[in-house]
Amino acid sequence: MAYELSAVIAGEEVLRAAARGLPAARTAVLGQGLSLMPMTEALFHAVAGGRDRGALGFREVPGGFDRVLAGWSAGGPVAYVEAEYFGGVGEQRAAVWEGGALVLGPLHAEEGRPFPPAGSPVSRALRRLGVAARAGEDEFSAVGLHRHRTSGGWVA
What is the distance between the alpha carbons of residues 81 and 38, in angstroms, rounded to a whole number? Predict the structure, then answer.
């Protein structure tokens, strides 16, 4: 079974403020006071300004979007995460901005390599956003990122 996620994750108020200026932006509530803004094709084109994909080593981040994320982080920490899996094999990327600066990453876990002791890139980014996981679960599960298998599923 496949899993694909490309999204901005931040506090509900931070993302609500960010989405006000972007008609293509859609948000969904996660757990622990966070929300998610999927990087849909419409949002990509709204923020890309004609620039290509691949900023900071991410597949779905348009050039210059890191500056937008840094600006949004003035209101609170903001993460950009990507995860892609098929049949249990895949990779993750994540970065976090806070106070206008990149404070974590970009992190990348390559296909076929185990996660470091600190955890997966997405879990580390969520931890930086304040997510607390209970014994036996990771931050990914703690906020409910398993609820949808695709980025678009969050806003369908």
Answer: 10
Enter the pTM of the model: 0.87
Compute the distance between CA of residue 37 and CA of residue 21 in angstroms, rounded to an integer.
Answer: 13
Neighbours of 137 (CB within 10 A): 10
pLDDT at 71: 92
Report the share of the chain in percent with pLDDT over 90.
32
Instruction: Give the integer Cα–Cα distance in Å for 85 and 103.
Output: 26
Burial class (CB in 10 A: 0-12, 13-18, 19+), 140: buried
First CA to last CA distance, the chain = 19
Q: What is the pLDDT of residues 107-126, one digit of tens each?
A: 888 766 766 677 789 899 99
